[in-house]
Amino acid sequence: MWCVYILKSQNKRWYYVGSTNRLETRIKEHNNGCVKSTKSYKPLKLVFNKDFNSEKEARCYERKVKDCRIEKEKIIKQIEDKNWGVACLRRQV
Asked: What is the rounded distance in angstroms from the CA atom of residue 60 to the CA atom of residue 77?
């Protein structure tokens, strides 16, 4: 199972969008400083994830979120409205 996830910096108003098929391991990599693009924003908290059946679907959605400001802002607003809880969208089959 693949997913698209959003991490929020605990120290700054900054979000990171990514995709993976091993979410827990990937979050640990981000928080351990193994990912160059997130290293200076640690610690990071998972605030959103959405599951997909394939890598292709996940990568397409990741690109949509990264490229479409409206889509990203919509997701971030949902997250902030929930007091920084994890917004988790399950794919309906």
From this structure: 21
Residue-range definition of the domain harbouring residue 84: 2-89
Identify the pLDDT of residue 87: 47
Best CA proximity match to 13, nearest among 50, 45, 37: 45
CA diameter of the chain: 38
CATH code of the domain covering residue 9: 3.40.1440
> What's the structural domain count of the chain?
1
- Prediction pTM value: 0.82
